[in-house]
Design a protein that fits this description.
Largest sheet of chain B: 5 strands, mixed
Structural class of chain A: mainly alpha
Number of domains of chain B: 2
Shape of chain B: globular
Strand content of chain A: under 5%
CATH class of the largest domain in chain B: Alpha Beta
Strand content of chain B: 15-25%
Number of helices of chain A: 11
Number of strands of chain B: 13
CATH architecture of one domain in chain A: Orthogonal Bundle
Order of helices and strands of chain A: HHHHHHHHHHH
CATH topology of the largest domain in chain B: D-Maltodextrin-Binding Protein, domain 2
Strand order of the largest sheet of chain B: 5-1-6-13-7
Low-confidence stretches of chain A: none
CATH topology of one domain in chain A: MetI-like fold
Largest interface: A-B, 18 and 20 residues
Mean pLDDT of chain A: 93
Distance between the termini of chain B: 61 Å
Structural class of chain B: alpha/beta
CATH class of one domain in chain A: Mainly Alpha
Order of helices and strands of chain B: HEEEEHEHEHEEHEHEHEHEHEHH
CATH superfamily of the largest domain in chain B: Periplasmic binding protein-like II
Helix content of chain B: 25-40%
Radius of gyration of chain B: 20 Å
Oligomer: heterodimer
Shape of chain A: flat
C-alpha cells in the first residue's frame, strides 16, 4: 500500500469547497444553541419547579441519546407524518441543512446550558453578598456580577463544546449534506483511496480546531484582563 | 460483573484467534445485507436473496466455506482492498472504473438502471431514442446512492443535474416518498418488486426507459476480488458457468421474478 501524495493535493481543494457548509453548520447551530442554552439556564435558575423540571427533562433527553440518532429521527423520522409534511416547518425540515442545524442546535443547547450552569454555580457567594451590601438589586447582580464572572468560568468548558460541535457537523454528511466530510466520502467512493483522503480531511479539521482554540484563548485573556498581574 | 466481563473477554479472544486461523477454504464475502431482493436479512436474521443464493451455489461448487460480512456500499471496494473480506457478492456491476482497482468474475446478472418519479408530476426526461434531455432535468432534485453506476451515469451524461448523494438505497426511496427529491435512478427490478408494486410506491412510476449502456453499467453484475488471484478467479468463473448451465441460476431468479436475470451465453 503506497501513499499517494498527489491524491492528497488534489482532494484538499475539493474538500475545502465544503468548508463553507461546515462553517455555516457550526456558526448557525452554535449561536442558536447558545441562545437555547441561556433559555434553559434561566428556566433552571427560575426557582419555578415546573420550568426547572422541563429544562431538566429536555437536557436529559438530548444528552442521553446519540446525536446521530437525533439527526436520523429529525431527517428520516419526522417526514413519515403527513402532518409534518403539510406544516409550515416543512420548508426547514425538507432541507437536509435545516434538519442538521436543528439537530445540532437542540443537542448543543442541552450541553452548553449545563456548562453555563457550572459557571453560575462557580461564582463566589461573597461577591454576591458584597453586591447586596452595596444595595444592588437581583437584576443588577445578575448583569454586573454573575454574568461576567460565570462567562469567564464557563469559557474553557464552552470552547471544548464548540470544538466537539465542529466534529459533530461531520455527521451531517450522513443526510446527504456535502460538507467537508460528505465531499471526502464522495472522493473516496470515486478513488477507493480512503487512507489519503481521510488523512487529509483529518488535517483540515485539526487546523480548524486549532483556530477555534486560539480564538477562545484570546477571548479568555481578554475576559481575565483584570486578574492578570501587571509586570 | 467481573466474571461476566472475563467471559466476554474470552469470547472476544476466541473470535480474534478464529479469524486469525482462517483455513484456506474459508472465504469472507462482503455484501450490503440491506439490498432486497438481492441481498438482505429476513425477519429471522437469515441472509437471503439472489446474491446470497449465488454465493451459496458458488461456495458449494468450489468447495469453500463462505463467511458473510455486512458492509455499507460506499466502503465496499476499500474494505475489499483492506482485506476485510475476500469477495464482493453484492450486485456490483463490472465497470471499467472499478476494474482499475479490483478484478471481477464473469457476469451473473444484468446491470441496468431506470429513473423513477411521482405519477402526478408529468416529466419528459428521455427522447424517443432513449437519450436523456438535459433541459428537462433542470430544476429536478435527483436522489442517487453514492458510488453506484447510477451516480457515474448522471455525472457523465447530465453533469449539470442537481444530484443528492445517499449512503444506501433505502434512504433514496425514503426521500423520494418524503418529497425531498423529485426523481431517483435505481435498479428497475428492485424498484418494481420492492416499491412500485407496494402501497408506498403506488404514487410513483418509471419516468424513462431501462438504461444499460455497457460504458457505465458494465457487462453485468459480477463477483469482485482483489487483483492477482487468477486461480481463484478461474474457479469462480467455472462455478458461475456451472450455475448457468445447470439451470440453478435461473431458478434463483425465478424465486423472485417471473424471468431470469442472465444471458445463457454467459455460460459458454
Amino acid at each position: 500500500m503506497s501513499f499517494d501524495l498527489n491524491l492528497v493535493l488534489e482532494s484538499l481543494p475539493q474538500m475545502l469547497a465544503g468548508f463553507g457548509i461546515t462553517l455555516k453548520l457550526l456558526l448557525v447551530s452554535g449561536s442558536l444553541g447558545l441562545v437555547l442554552a441561556i433559555v434553559l439556564l434561566l428556566m433552571r435558575m427560575s426557582g419555578k419547579f415546573y420550568l426547572d423540571w422541563l429544562a431538566q427533562i429536555y437536557i436529559y433527553v438530548f444528552r442521553g441519546t446519540p446525536i446521530l440518532v437525533q439527526i436520523f429521527i429529525i431527517y428520516y423520522g419526522l417526514p413519515q407524518f403527513e402532518a409534518v409534511r403539510d406544516s409550515v416547518f416543512w420548508s426547514i425540515l425538507r432541507e437536509p441543512t435545516g434538519c442538521a442545524i436543528l439537530a445540532l442546535t437542540l443537542n448543543t443547547g442541552a450541553y452548553v446550558s449545563e456548562i453555563l450552569r457550572g459557571g453560575v454555580l462557580g461564582v463566589d457567594k461573597g461577591l454576591l453578598e458584597a453586591g447586596s451590601a452595596l444595595g444592588m438589586s437581583a437584576r443588577h447582580k445578575l448583569i454586573y456580577i454573575t454574568t461576567p464572572l460565570a462567562t469567564r468560568l464557563a469559557l474553557p468548558a464552552y470552547s471544548n463544546d464548540v470544538i466537539s460541535l465542529l466534529k459533530s457537523t461531520a455527521l451531517a454528511s450522513t443526510i446527504t449534506i456535502a460538507d467537508m466530510t460528505g465531499i471526502a466520502r464522495t472522493i473516496v467512493a470515486d478513488t477507493y483511496a480512503p487512507y489519503e483522503v481521510f488523512i487529509s480531511l483529518a488535517i483540515v479539521y485539526m487546523i480548524f480546531t486549532l483556530a477555534i482554540q486560539k480564538l477562545f484563548g484570546l477571548f479568555e485573556r481578554y475576559l481575565s484582563r483584570h486578574t492578570r498581574r501587571e509586570d | 460483573m467481573v466474571k461476566q466481563s472475563i467471559s466476554l473477554l474470552a469470547i472476544g479472544a476466541a473470535a480474534l484467534f478464529s479469524t486469525a486461523n482462517v483455513s484456506a477454504e474459508t472465504l469472507r464475502v462482503g455484501m450490503e445485507c440491506t439490498y432486497a431482493p438481492f441481498n438482505y436479512k429476513t425477519a429471522d436474521g437469515e441472509l437471503a436473496g439472489y446474491d446470497v443464493d449465488v454465493a451459496k451455489g458458488v461456495a458449494k461448487i468450489i468447495g469453500a466455506e463462505f463467511e458473510y460480512v455486512c458492509q455499507e456500499w460506499d466502503g465496499m471496494i476499500p474494505a475489499l482492498l483492506a482485506n476485510k473480506f475476500d469477495l464482493i457478492i453484492a450486485s456490483m456491476s463490472i465497470t471499467e472504473k472499478r476494474m482499475q482497482k479490483i478484478d471481477f468474475s464473469g457476469p451473473y446478472r444484468f446491470s441496468t438502471g431506470q429513473v423513477l418519479g411521482a405519477r402526478k408530476k408529468p416529466m419528459e426526461l428521455f427522447d424517443d431514442a432513449g437519450n436523456p434531455i438535459a433541459d428537462n432535468f433542470k430544476g429536478l432534485k435527483v436522489g442517487l446512492e453514492r458510488a453506484t453506476t447510477y451516480a457515474s451515469w448522471f455525472e457523465e451524461k447530465l453533469p449539470g443535474a442537481d444530484v443528492v448523494l445517499y449512503d444506501n438505497s433505502e434512504s433514496v426511496y425514503l426521500d423520494l416518498q418524503n418529497g425531498r427529491v423529485d426523481i431517483i435512478m435505481t435498479n428497475p427490478m428492485k424498484a418494481h418488486l420492492k416499491f412500485l408494486s407496494k402501497e408506498d410506491g403506488a404514487g410513483f412510476e418509471f419516468k424513462g426507459p431501462v438504461v444499460d449502456e455497457v460504458e457505465y453499467f458494465g457487462v453485468g453484475v459480477g463477483i469482485g476480488l482483489r487483483k492477482g488471484q487468477d486461480e481463484l478467479k478461474e474457479k469462480l468463473n467455472g462455478a458461475l458457468k456451472d450455475l448457468i448451465n445447470s439451470g440453478d441460476l435461473e431458478s434463483y431468479a425465478k424465486k423472485i421474478f417471473p424471468f431470469k436475470l442472465h444471458k445463457d451465453e454467459w455460460g459458454q
